[in-house]
């Protein structure tokens, strides 16, 4: 009844024709939006966000820098961002930055899926990780996430317990599913007793295999209970990585005969889209096999624009700005049509990732470079002027390659044939 009265009030104010009063209408309406309204709504596109600009991860982005990024993402139509941890100041400062922008501009909307990092015992130490015990740091992470969700209820709409915290290739820190289940239940209990909003959604964001879409080693009862406990499944899918680890998928030449190089690339990127859909469908099939039917959204997927390693010239030749642009379009088209959110990874390059090698692909997943150059995927947006007056690190938004398409295409390679692949691997 309370919400109904507010909506009637908003309509009344609007009908009065007072321009000044009109400005408060979006605030009244937007305060009513919940995760259920936002997720899967193509008017509220999502993005994974990290604002770290330096190789030194200890240098935190300032409020001004965070605001720069939020304005850029907002201009792209992004209305929800995903963060990863709360033991560093970035997430809390981001919430402050969004709040200040909203105070300055009543029409600005940005919501957050707040991540709480989860580790096993001895993670990131010189001791052997104990995957069936949890880190003592998990509890303060969760308590901080709860506090921030309550402090910023108009912004925080989802809490995600862990990031790729169950997938077994995360050998330095992964936990068994019971740990994630414990903290999901903790949050759900807080919702039941009124400590957290009943409209706040709770999930864990993890690899498709961890959600049951991979091998049988993941199909355990604790996972089944976790699927039943979350409000939705946040699934990661990365066909780009599988171009190296499962090369037979890319080496298949069927349908590529007599095609131009560009046609081969475009067909290959459509295969990548199909591969992501297949992995997500496998999660859905497993979920349904245990009698559950809940929303699935893409917590992460992305494509690096450069790699000097496995995914570059000497490997699967997967990474360049042209393929990144195709993949981004394919993921948005698919998820928008399917009524799914896609927290695309990611808005901006982050130099701290991937060690000391500047060519490590982990440093190159952004749609923007660190200094504010828009990669090929955003060239049309630059031409349309949507970034006019906006900056990154104080720089106006310009195109990579100075907008020279011929120069860009010189760095674009066709995925290898089986013969080329095996020849390149025999050299190593």
SSE blueprint:
Elements: H1 2-15, H2 19-22, H3 25-30, H4 35-38, E1 45-48, H5 63-75, E2 78-82, H6 90-104, E3 111-116, E4 120-121, E5 130-134, H7 138-151, E6 156-163, H8 177-192, E7 201-207, H9 221-229, E8 233-236, H10 239-245, H11 248-251, H12 261-289, E9 296-301, H13 321-338, E10 342-344, E11 373-374, H14 379-384, E12 391-392, E13 395-396, E14 398-399, H15 405-409, H16 418-426
Parallel strand pairs: 1-2, 2-3, 3-6, 6-7, 7-8, 8-9, 9-10, 11-14
Antiparallel strand pairs: 4-5, 12-13
Helix pairs in contact: 5-6, 8-9, 12-13
Essential attributes:
16 helices; 428 residues; TIM Barrel; single chain; 40% helix; two-stranded antiparallel ribbon; globular; 8-stranded parallel β-sheet
Tell me, briefly, the overall form: globular
CATH architecture call = Alpha-Beta Barrel
Order of SSEs: HHHHEHEHEEEHEHEHEHHHEHEEHEEEHH
Q: What is the oligomer described by this structure?
A: single chain
Please give the number of β-strands.
14
Strand percentage: 5-15%
Write down the domain tally.
1
Q: What do we call the CATH topology?
A: TIM Barrel
> Roughly how many Å is the radius of gyration?
22 Å
Biggest sheet layout? 8 strands, parallel
Determine the structural class based on helices, strands and strand pairing. alpha/beta
Question: What's the CATH class, please?
Answer: Alpha Beta
Tally of alpha and pi helices: 16
Order of strands in the sheet with the most strands?
1-2-3-6-7-8-9-10
Average pLDDT reading:
91
Helix content: 40-55%
For the record, give the distance between the C-alpha atoms at the N and C termini, rounded to a whole number.
Answer: 68 Å
CATH superfamily: Glycosidases
Uncertain spans: 1-30
